[in-house]
Design goal:
2 copies of one chain form a homodimer. Chain A folds into 2 domains: about 1-105 and about 260-349, 3-Layer(aba) Sandwich (Isopropylmalate Dehydrogenase); about 120-255, 3-Layer(aba) Sandwich (Isopropylmalate Dehydrogenase). Chain A is built from 11 helices and 12 strands. With about 350 residues, chain A is an alpha/beta fold. The structure holds 3-isopropylmalic acid (2 copies). One 3-isopropylmalic acid (IPM) sits at the interface of chains B and A.
């Protein structure tokens, strides 16, 4: 365990910088005196692109690759800005990092903390983890169009799924389940997406005997959304494809108090590249710079970062502080800074 | 307007026959003396396949094609039965009918009826329609696998989207919105699925000026799931791709009282082929034959059928009767037959 964390910070656009500031303050406090954190800030995102023309240079990638981990705020500009159309920044920056740094596990814990209001009238105990595949599926960018703009336009999207890619994330899902409540749910759409679905199902079936204590079940993605609102307590670990995971984790965030609380880790478990930790929410340009954003998701992402880097006690200090703050949140609105300061104070107690 | 409806009935598997029986009784009563309904029952589904080896013969298709409409129960056998794996019946029967009969509009109204409990604590007014594309997207079955069962397996799924296919369903969505509360929401994932997403977005933008009274907005599919649980009242008409529509409508069913109430129409608006009406729920083999299923979704599907065939008053008689029954439902459990009889009695009043 190194005594210095060499951290890359990408605050990004919109509310990204605001929430990242709070996450960094909490991070420093949580690791305490024994561990130093060396921060290198990278100016990247929609704003940076519009100013400089850079989305992500190869040299920047090389520099990022040398850090221990990346703390990521949020990227994305005005959704109506034509210069950014088609997810230019999301794909050129966020997805490029996930793919280049082989973040094949997109880990998204969902927990309804005591004191947090769910839009569900009786949510029950919500405490599960979505293990979303991060480097395959419909995210590979292998589609294409012909005859664009004509009445004969054809636009294809290709979902690519490999035995290599599915096996490693399924194995990670089983390991998570074994370390939690031993229930793994594969979510896919095997009755329609028969090629990919069959690969996922066979992979789960093949690996299951290696984890005899883990109970395995399967849900179609459509049915999974039903259970997320009628019986979220049924879930412990969900393992799923990149796109299904994207959809399910926004819904999971919503039922557990909003994506202002939802943290995520883009993880390379092999440690070949730095992993990257980010709130599930976006850059929310409409409320940027107004101290309105909830920094909790960014702060919890910092806890995932510490967990990943081998500082579980420091991670627990953060989640405990967040839980304490959430338990006491009333209806009064606090600024980003106030929420950050309250959690920081709880960490320091 | 013909005075005889030449109806094909596919009761199917599991709870399909039970709910279809109730829907037919209500259908006959709702049309009254002026319209005769000639029913032709087709034995199709998982059970029929396991007995006879037929999923759907070409001659059966030709006979089905000659009817005015199809009332469909539910198909699908025991999910663990290996002889039915990979959605054999769903694809060979249900999807084959949707594709062959060019059901390019999969119409799925969502309404939280007074008296019905939602899992959301404050759902607000839920009354929207999902116009799901029915003949393209990842449902086309154009994927494939190589090196199956080896560590080098690659499984691809291809989503095919055409200007022709997108335009006609988008136009239908606009027309629906114009006839309702004039709000159309395109749901897609334009920041990742850039080829298909761009086609959908450009098509909506191009057709919008033809419907100047309709307000248009856009949501990524992940964000749409959030709004479905935090502010479903924001929706009037959603137009979306086949797979996103599949996912969103199960969630929509769940927030509006369960898919036991969710009706759907697989519609060919050009009337080149018979349209097909079915509950969104499946065959639920676990409760089949026990009179436990709620026939309401099947009954509301019959109302959509009447609407489509030009009998709006008869359709309204059914929805009014359903609303009356739902408003008075207590906590006591009624059998499929009892619910059907209660709605039938309300139609006859
Ligand atoms: C911004 C977008 C590309 C991204 C995704 O689709 O993965 C986001 O929705 C997420 O979930 O992290
Ligand atoms: C059974 C299945 C193929 C079908 C679909 O995915 O369309 C069902 O989920 C539905 O929504 O009608």
């Amino acid at each position: 365990m190194s005594s210095t964390i060499d951290l890359a910070v990408i605050p990004g656009d919109g509310i990204g910088p605001e929430v990242t500031t709070e996450a960094l303050a909490v991070l420093h406090s949580a690791v305490g005196g024994g561990v130093a954190i060396a921060e290198t800030h990278y100016s990247l995102g929609a704003e940076h692109y519009l100013e400089t023309g850079e989305i992500l240079h190869d040299e920047t990638m090389e520099r990022l690759a040398r850090h221990d981990a990346i703390l990521f705020g949020a990227v994305g500009g005005d959704p109506r800005d034509a210069r950014l159309a088609g997810g230019l920044i999301e794909r050129g920056l966020l997805l490029r990092l996930r793919f280049a740094f082989d973040h094949y596990v997109n880990l998204r814990p969902t927990r309804l903390f005591p004191g947090v209001t769910s839009p569900l009238s009786s949510p029950g105990e919500v405490d599960f983890v979505v293990v979303r595949e991060g480097t395959e599926g419909p995210y590979v960018g292998n589609g294409g169009s012909i005859r664009v703009g004509t009445p004969h336009e054809i636009a294809n999207e290709v979902s690519v799924n490999t035995a290599f890619g599915v096996e490693r994330v399924v194995r990670f899902g089983f390991a998570q389940a074994a370390a939690r409540s031993c229930r793994l749910t594969l979510v896919h759409k095997t009755n329609v997406l028969v090629n990919a679905g069959s690969l996922w199902q066979r992979t789960v079936d093949r690996i299951a005997p290696e984890f005899p204590g883990v109970n395995v079940d399967y849900l179609h993605v459509d049915a999974a959304t039903i259970f997320l609102v009628t019986d979220p307590a049924r879930f412990d670990v969900i393992v799923t494809d990149n796109l299904f995971g994207d959809i399910l984790t926004d819904l999971a965030g919503a039922i557990s108090g909003g994506i202002g609380l939802a943290a995520s880790g883009n993880i390379n478990p092999d440690r070949a590249f730095p992993s990257m930790f980010e709130p599930v929410h976006g850059s929310a340009p409409d409320i940027a710079g107004q101290q309105k954003a909830d920094p909790t998701a960014a702060i919890l992402s910092a806890a995932l970062l510490l967990e990943h880097l081998g500082h579980p006690e420091a991670a627990t200090r953060i989640t405990t502080a967040v839980a304490a703050d959430l338990a006491g949140r009333g209806s009064e609105r606090r600024s980003t800074r106030e929420v950050g300061a309250a959690i920081l104070a709880a960490v320091e107690r």
